[in-house]
Batch of 3 targets.
Target 1
Amino acid sequence: MPEEFTHEDPRIVELRSVREKIRQGGGAERIKIQHAKGKLTARERLDILLDPGTFNELEPYITHQGDEMGIANEKFMGDGVVTGYGQIDGRTIYVYAQDFTVYGGTLSEMQSHKICRVMDLAVRNGAPIIGLIDSGGARIQEGVKSLGGYAEIFRRNAQYSGVIPQISLMLGPCAGGAAYSPALTDLIIMVEEKSFMFLTGPEVIKTVTGETTDAESLGGAAVHLGISGTAHLATESETDALLLARRLLGYFPSNNVENPPYQPPVDDPLRMDEVLNHIVPLSPSESYSMHEVILHVIDQGSFIEIQPTWAPNAIVGLARIGGHSVGIVAQEPSAMAGVIDINSADKMARFVRMCDCFNIPLVTFVDSPGFLPGIGQEHGGVIRHGAKLLYAYSEATVPKVTVITRKAYGGAYVVMSSKFLGTDVTYAWPSAEIAVMGAEGAVNILFKKQITSAADPAQERQSLVEDYRDRFNNPYYAARAGYVDDIVEPRETRPKIIASLAALRDKVSIAPARKHGNIPV
């Protein structure tokens, strides 16, 4: 080494020292506490999420600027959030990761500045953004400044919705108004027994209402996956959540003007599984598994079901068919007979809109006897909620392919991507029944007097039901009227869908000029 390089420049030594201090966040003791809770640090999480060696940090030297309530005595560089950009599978991704070791990850004015900065860069460069949430909420010491900081983030969440994919990973607490940011993003992934969201905590609830609860029972992963419908996916560990986020992004384009990534299929596009020809029972009242249907049609191993435990009578999820990303929407006949209710309508409508935002074609499997009847549903606004699904499919301009496997009755037929809502190709299986209602209901209305006056009313009703079903509740009657494009053997479904999506790849659909529609909410 030349003599002039034998002594370190003190300025370089100082920079390295400062960088190491930044990497320590709130310090070794607080990191130890974080690990003792079974949680990773913000930087450890980013190491798992991003391709090795690709993370570039932004604004690591920022500290909070206030002196309220003595917080000027303890300043940490980075101010409780790590922001920057890196790559996932070679694609640029912008990220922010809240650091619970610094003021419990609470949001300050400067932390908001950092998050907003990275969100703005993501949009300018047409790249997804992922937020790793682990925060006690607003930094109380900063008062209204922290609230203003949240508002800046919320505004960007809303304005950038449908422009770039936004994914929130809940890796710890997310309390108070902070929960509105992930609620505005496309997908929320939670960690079981480690993350929770709520607007008012257990102590406030006990003071105001007298109810006793805890954080997990109030807003844990099981609650938001199965009861509230706020979250979309849950994993057992942080590492699993981070790896799932990597996998999910493989189904999305980087922005709304690109197409989703294509992966060369390892599954034969012409594969026809004979089991599909035997999956729908002969009896229309007998259930079967639509999940099994989906798994036999898509590329093997590619299905990620979204919100599997909320409104299980509906199925939504991302998959690949012939290597192309698709959104799957379906009914599950083994859950509530596949009927559409308030929650399932909301679940399907939001998913359809998300896919349409990011140019992901929609494949819909239909087997529904209609909307769930009842006073509770009517008073709860099932019309309004069902209209969301109708609106979503009508507005969607992506390629849409529908497969009617069995029942498509009444309003359920119409709202489930029916041909005249703009669906491009509609297939029916030989077991399909497309009608205003089931044969029993139709006969009871149309032939009421004839049945009651018959010598054997039960026998007369049964005979009329069978005749009505043979004449009207079959795919051939609908096909003759132009309501389906083709009747196919169930085993032919996969190659038929792949061929349809290939033919629709360059679809153009120009909507009338408007500011935005007024979806029923």
Target 2
Amino acid sequence: MANLFNLKAQKDKARLGGGKDKIEAQHKKGKLTARERLGKLLDPHSFVEINLFTSHRSTDLGMKGREVPGEGVVTGSGTINGQLVFVFAQDFTAMGGTLGEAHAKKIVKIMDLALENGAPIIGLNDSGGARIQEGVDALDGYGNIFFRNTQASGVIPQIAAIMGPCAGGAVYSPALMDFVFMVEGISQMFITGPQVVKEVTGEEVSPEELGGAATHNQLSGVAHFANPDEESCLLGIRELLSYIPPNNMETVPEIEVEDPPLPGPTGLEDLIPKDPKRLYDMKEILRLLVDGGRFFEVQPNFAPNIIVGFARLGGKSVGIVANQPKERGGVLDINSSDKGSRFVRFCDAFNIPLITLVDVPGYLPGTEQEYGGVIRHGAKLLYAYSEATVPKVTLIARKAYGGAYLAMCSQALGADFVWAWPNAEIAVMGPEGAANIIYRKEIKNAENPAAVREEKIKQYRDLFANPLIAARRGMVHDIIEYNETRARLIYSLDVLDFKKISRPNRKHGNFPV
């Protein structure tokens, strides 16, 4: 009995992390501990911990004989909605959750188990970064994690939640993962902190301004979700996992749903303005089309001129990409191309069909875009759609102009079905721009240039402001009524259930990064 009692005491001590004072300090910051986070993330009583007793072997710079309970990270497995997941949660109460050799080995072990067993890996990051006392051993530990992030990419879903500081080399593992969650007022990510920035550049910036949730969700695009508190962040991870399979060899199980009534004859039509210059909210369209009106948006605050996210159609999980006319008229630009292409590639890697809703006037013009490489970034979307072999269904809702029409999963890029509403416009460019080029001399030499210009714009619009020409060429497979849309999308997914495509044998393509 004595041995059993000692074992319990040792486990209790290790599970206490940095001790009651450190736990209280964590709580005062509005933060949960590593174990509390896992308790809210995983199904009740499902967590099984491994490597609880791991300890460092460092002796330099005051580390000899210093105890770091659990090496500053909690690792193990559990279930979310009954699905197996592997997890690690850095423990800020134990030496600031800093990463040393043994800390890294614990994470590497759990990542290896996740990859070998085809289950998602979830990392809850709350760390002061590399453990300075361990020098190159700490750096090597990060390298081993990055290597496994890369090996797991496209094989198992990888999700990172930033639950505190994440600086220096620590930021690269989340950046290599599929989705990054952040908590407002608590999370920070940066390569170099405010102090170093000030010393090197002279800039004065707060940690929140430099790398907070708002910065990475609105400006940099590094993060995908910003949550007001830790609990909603952990619930968001649970919901995200309901739309994606455990690995690249499986699909998301279908859910039996009571099919809600289709929109009436004017349900969708009333949301599309008759004036092609007027803006509207594409999210309202999406909510009428998807099961239960539930759309789980990804990166809602970054590049809002394109919408990406998950939903269900007829019980099937789908990835949705849509232009947002409400933001910049729905144009494509550098950031929206990056956002869209990465999402398309994720869906393709994990067998999630793609639904694309098109209302795009073109690419954003200007020196800022050209100098920033909009050609290179825009090519990413072309590449991602062309590479994707999952079912691809496109609906042209209104405008589809120029290269942007092609980039939004046209038939030329491999769309299996392209449907269009009667008001769809498919052309090289908008009527105004086309009239100015085609009829330039006539307009210039006319007695009343403004009247002639309006007449030519009308001629061009009458010719192209409908999808008939594209339908006659076979680039649109049918022009459908608004109230048919949901049923037609579900039909498309059912028909494509067993789609198989073979590609040329190659090591990998050269993606235009």
Target 3
Amino acid sequence: MTEFLIKNGFVFDPTLKIKGDVADVAIKNGKIVETDAVKKPKVIDASGKTVMAGGLEIHAHIAGPKVNVGRIYRPEDKLFNATAGLKATPTHMNTRMEGGFSIPTTYKTGYNYARLGYTTAMEAAMPPLFARHVHEEMRDTPIIDEGAYPVFGNNWFVLEYIKNREINNTAAYIAWLLEATKGFAIKSVNPGGTEAWGWGLNCLQVTDPVPYFDVTPQEITTGLIEANELLGLPHSLHIHGNNLGNPGNYTTTLDTLKAAEGHKAKNKFHREQVLHHTHIQFHSYGGDKWANFESKARPIMDYVNKHKNITVDVGFVTLDETTTMTADGPFEHHLTELNHLKWANVDVELETAAGVVPYVYSPDIFVCGVQWAIGLEIALLSKDPMRCFITTDHPNAGPFTRYPRILKWLMSQKARDEQIKAFKNSDKVVNGSEIASFDRELTLYEVAAMTRAGPAKALGLSHMYGGLKPGLDADVAVYNFNPEKENSPDEIEKAFSTVQYLFKTGEKIIKDGEIVSNGNKRTLWVHAKVEENPQVMRDIEEKFVKYYTVTKGNYEVHGKHFIPNPLAIEVDAT
């Protein structure tokens, strides 16, 4: 492979504790190497530019059945921003046709992540029954490495085993399902609540019993944490808590976070956390009705800051028209009753359910303004950027293509003040939040932690991604941004909207802002080895015969058919 030397850039890398020093980055055989290891490299002059590792998306909805439902029943989404492929030239590949805004096509998803300087993205909620479909879409998505989190929080096997306190059986079943679906981590969405939705109910508190199974969300969460650590998986339990999106839900969120108390991480991947709470902005609401809706970001982040065995991602509201989609089926039905827009529901036998509803985060609506403020408060209140990550819960709070806009707000108090003034109900937004009093502006070093090093460490992938340390994969982004200049908010947003150069595992993907290669994408999954468990295998065989509409043989994903360049992260829990 070609050797490269990226010279004289302002480097920001938490893995090396480099905070904007002018330095060189060398690439050889797909890896970052010491600068004296390259002999005749191609030189990239990064003078006056910012250099970081490739970005890592810890939570987004980018592949699978609910994403496709959104694409099918929202043709209007394609009208917002559709672009043709690049014209073929001797130096530029011909990219495929691109379409969609909040739910971009698979091609546009890969291209747009690359344009932002991202090289890896994780699909946040894979229904196991549809794992083949998820992998087909990920295979179809160019450039970026991807993995997917199977959902477990409403799975019949899990509910029964945890009800009976059979943690070894829970772990054995999880290991089998990760292998069968080629999944990466344990995801729990509204634990117990989505199963209750099959009965027209929900679990809004962690002590609400799940119908028929007579187990609570609190017990499900604790059981999954214990099983996760018994297996020693790379990532912690990845949870979307109960009571999302309702005024006053911050108390439920605190109860969910308390499930991590007393638990320690047990793994070989340098992961320190046992629980990751996703899109926590949607779970940090005060008040008891929409009229007195207010931010409770501070009590949530006070708790997170004090408990180092927890990570979170934010779920920033970007003030766009978008498409909400989640395996939290009862929430989506509740949302369509609020905004009276079209609604789709997808139930998945024995496993999960999902809903899809369009939504407009209008700056003219007081609640949307406070939601916007809550997301920013969470990030600005974080005392450890290695445990708080930038996401939009794409596309739920807005499309991931708005990350540059979020960086503008986080890095510039002036940008925040301008947005507050632009709200129709600015006084109500100020009174319902603390954002107007915040003068903190994030540094590029903190941004690198929240988008690179932090997510990589939380996922147990810091041996591959997240930094510029020699030996890591050569995923490198070069932005046309000089941190020594006084940059306006608009200049911040523009600079991070299109990366100037992007390298992925040593291959040049973007040159002068143009995509020049599809790279060599990979799929990440976990191969968890456990002791043979005859009871669990009998249970699996029995339920497939009695309840599933497919056979076990047609359920499992076989890597050679579906997965490009599979990277199995091996875990030995025997």
